Amino acid sequence: MPYRLTIKAFFFNAKTDYLPYYKHFEITLNEEAKAADLLAQIKVQNENFSYPEEKLVFKINDLVVEGEESVKELVARLGTDLQIDPVNAYRSNNGLVINDEDFMQRYALLAPYASEEDLAYYETLYALHYASETEKFDRDYIGDAVLLLAHRLITQGSEHKEEILRTVAEAHSGLFECEYENNLFNAQDHTDAINALKEMAKPSKDNTEGFIDKMAAKFMKQPESDKTQLVAKEAEGKEIAYYYGNSSDNSEAVSQKTAALGAKMTAFSRAHKLSGLSLLEDSKALAFKKAGTTLLDALDSGADILVVEDKAVCSMFRKNLSAIERTIGRDIVLTLLTTEEFLSIKERIAA
What we know:
By secondary structure, the chain is an alpha/beta fold. Helices cover 39% and strands 15% of the residues. It has 15 helices and eleven strands. The chain has helices spanning 35-45, 71-78, 101-108, 116-123, 126-130, 144-155, 161-169, 191-201, 211-220, 228-234, 251-260, 284-300, 311-319, 321-328, 339-343; strands at 2-11, 21-30, 57-60, 63-66, 81-85, 92-94, 97-98, 239-243, 264-265, 305-308, 335-338. It has three domains: 2-87, Beta-grasp domain (Ubiquitin-like (UB roll), Roll); 101-201, Alpha-helical ferredoxin (Fumarate Reductase Iron-sulfur Protein, Chain B, domain 2, Orthogonal Bundle), CATH 1.10.1060.10; 220-343, Rossmann fold (3-Layer(aba) Sandwich).
């Protein structure tokens, strides 16, 4: 089965261009084709399009893919309108070719404690390193890959545990700036490894209660004003956005309730991203930056009301809204509701 793809491809040559730009292409590929074949077809149409021949990783619709990824899988998930970018646009030298010296510079931090086998393992994390969500908020971030290497070294019994922990924890933007999530097309969840590393670097005073659980309890103790009546009176004709982060997705129930209230649903790109709750204790500024980015994304997408699945996250947004606004440099005029509050709104208001 052939796929006809509409492509928007990134172009930039550091030697000749002041700013990057995009060009549009129509390409037909069969279902056996790989992502690398897609790039080769663009190259046939425009010889100035550049991509690496080795370590081929790049972004399609903001997800990091490798050259061997099948076009069939890409189309099944992303459709036939595709945008192609380098894994890190500000590191681009020529099109999708990037300056990737940072990858091995990060490895050098732990190289004194690593073996050849450890290096080989680290090299398998190349795509993951450039798929980091945290790096979008801090370009100096140490990187998810080196944190996973640190976890591997320690769990395999390295005698240099304290030195390794000190290295990743005391970096300018290191372990405690990591709220783990990545943008890999084939996502990998290393949350447990990162959280375990944090526990080792900063032992909890109460090991019976996890950090996220403690944060949730802290915020749920905050008094909350009753927002439901306000929204019940004003929901009609409003735009409702739904944020679930890494919680369960109840978008169907929220959508049905929105329609019943005479309101409209609006989508926004960060609906499934994390927003800094786990960073609040150790990296407050970054937590507020992430929270503000999520709230502004909803606001700028047209939302009047943001329904938040996780009660602790909603409480964090409400309690710290003024600080979040100062951090992000914008007023954030949104009504914030938990999903429970939103679903409990009466659909008809008595005259």
